[in-house]
């Protein structure tokens, strides 16, 4: 829970700083209730007046660092306090996103009081937001998944966990093989043939990274390997495979990496994905319900472009992938039997579950260690029970609703 607090946002911290008597632990439920009430007021003001909010932010940000040390000392809680703080953390995250958005909207500098104006402003904001997301997800790609056509096992190993892939952009024929869920050795095969035949002519190159990965969420994008840095809850590394050095790093906010992304994938805390729109991260959100959070990442600067809370649950999930800006989550009951896609999330709202056919995977009994879409060849690369698999897909144009 402390991680949640520190990670969640400076906002809760500033908030506590503003309304609590100085350095002591808030263990009293009445105090929590009081914080809750004050927070409600703050949320209302947040909606009402961007300018006041901005002033708040600036003022309170000064407190943030000072107070976080104090919060770090509060190690014992009643369970009531824990869940109250959990709730607050969720709401604070929401507020934080709103703040980020407000800061993005540079033009809305006027503090209005009239309800009509507030409403009008809200509508404009919503329209702006919609436009921004549409621009963000405006690639020349308009497909939705209609079925998983075939399965091809290209290689068999004894390792239950791992990932394999080609670069998601460009034309490099190289195949990358990452065995295990915590390691630093990447095998680079010249092409698919040498990978399939395990050919020693030419032998695969062994690349030892300076850091180890955690889980099976790695992707290769424009020559860079992106992975969750082992031993950290939420750090994503951008690794230059040519120079064999860390190029850049980022920290996913919102309590990312605190729990497994998918219930049946026991080592992946942050999953990464690439589709026609670029780079994405998928992680489990805060709280006990474990809904997936989808975040769009700008691969050059490693900035966060946008984040969405999805309705898709982590429970009984084993993997997910993005295709044309839509998240498809693969489920299986207790990790056995048929694997099917029963949750789909489209940030633009064009594709919904009701419009999709029954999407299930052929064969295989065990849970997938990873399933990643490659927008270059438009097929899925998967790892199941030690086998490296390619699934071919059937797609069709999205139906547009106005
Ligand atoms: C940090 O806390 C100290 C007392 O613990 C106080 O004197 C100081 O003004 C605080 N700084 C800020 C920026 O709030
Ligand atoms: C999407 O891109 C096309 C051209 O590629 C452009 O004409 C259109 O205006 C863009 N739409 C948005 C919402 O940015
Ligand atoms: C890392 O992977 C290599 C092969 O890719 C293997 O030889 C080595 O034992 C692995 N290390 C660990 C700690 O699992």
Automatic annotation (TrEMBL):
Top-level taxon of origin: Eukaryota
Pfam families per UniProt: OLF
Signal listed as a keyword: yes
Keyword Transmembrane: no
GO cellular component, one term: extracellular space
Alphabetized UniProt keyword annotations: Secreted, Signal
GO biological process: signal transduction
UniProt domain Olfactomedin-like: residue ranges: 140-397
Protein name as it appears in the record: Olfactomedin-like protein 1
Location(s) in or outside the cell: Secreted
Leader sequence residues: 1-26
InterPro entries to which the protein is assigned, alphabetical: Olfac-like_dom (IPR003112), Olfactomedin-like_domain (IPR050605)
Biological source species: Trichechus manatus latirostris (Florida manatee)
